[in-house]
Write a structure and sequence with these properties.
The chain has helices at 39-49, 54-67, 72-81, 113-125, 127-135, 139-159, 178-181, 183-195, 201-218, 224-233; strands spanning 3-5, 12-14, 168-169, 172-173. With 238 residues, the protein is mainly alpha-helical. The strands form 2 sheets. The chain has a two-stranded antiparallel ribbon with strand order 1-2. The chain has a two-stranded antiparallel sheet with strand order 3-4. Strand 3 (168-169) and strand 4 (172-173) form a beta hairpin.
């Protein structure tokens, strides 16, 4: 397996075939460093990227997966599409978004026990993830990349994008204060992950490290408030 330099954090990354994100910071790996895909697969993914309708995206990807069953790139697109293709125009349902799975560590009181159990299992055992792990040259590296990307999307959508956690004045967020505002909910989540005895010790450690990496990247490396919050809550990074 070759190593490449992550353009975001500058660390050497053991590059698994088809890997798109750095396992340390969650940043996108340079396109030039990606292993070449078949022209047909690249063209197909470009078509999918241009689509606005999640249902059409899902159908296109599902057909492509049947045609190219060994393509990690297609499998990863399906993984992160989540259940967006199931969304309803009549009812707002954030659970169709893949990263919503991490809501079980932020607002568990809004979920019933059956939902919590299903969401926890889906984080590590969803069939789409298992397919990607089978296709990846380095399953452990892919798992770390997946958890970091999942955390990055959650922070962007459900922490940074929430007026509840990201205070706003006259509809405008104070981005410079984001590291301080989001430290409390992020610290709460890390504590909940640490205390989740339904996960294995390894799963807890991977998830916590991935979430911290994502926070560090999303908030420009300013983790001073989060580290204080973690200390207050007795959270020790594994």
């Amino acid at each position: 397996m070759s190593e490449i330099l992550c353009p975001t954090c500058g660390k050497n990354v053991a590059h698994a075939e088809g890997a798109s994100f750095c396992p340390y910071c969650g940043g996108a790996l340079a396109k030039a460093a990606q292993p070449p895909e078949a022209d047909a697969v690249r063209a197909l993914l470009d078509q999918v990227a241009a689509m606005d309708n999640p249902r059409k995206k899902y159908d296109k990807l599902a057909q492509a997966m049947e045609r190219y069953p060994d393509s990690l790139a297609i499998a990863e697109e399906l993984l992160f599409l989540g259940r967006l293709h199931e969304r309803s125009a009549r009812q707002l349902d954030f659970s169709v978004i893949k990263s919503y799975l991490l809501m079980l560590y932020l607002e568990p009181e809004t979920l019933v026990p059956e939902q919590i159990a299903a969401m926890r299992e889906a984080i590590f055992s969803h069939p789409d993830l298992q397919r990607c792990l089978r296709l990846a040259a380095d399953p452990n590296a892919f798992l770390d990349q997946y958890l970091t990307k999942l955390s990055t999307q959650f922070i962007e959508l459900f922490l940074r994008g929430s007026s509840r956690y990201m205070r706003r004045f006259f509809g405008m967020g104070l981005e410079s204060r984001a590291p301080k505002y989001l430290a409390a909910p992020a610290g709460f989540m890390l504590a909940a992950m640490q205390q989740d005895d339904q996960l294995t010790q390894e799963q807890r450690a991977r998830l916590m490290r991935a979430f911290f990496r994502a926070f560090n990247t999303q908030l420009g490396g300013d983790t001073q408030w989060l580290l204080q919050e973690m200390q207050t809550r007795g959270v020790a990074m594994p």
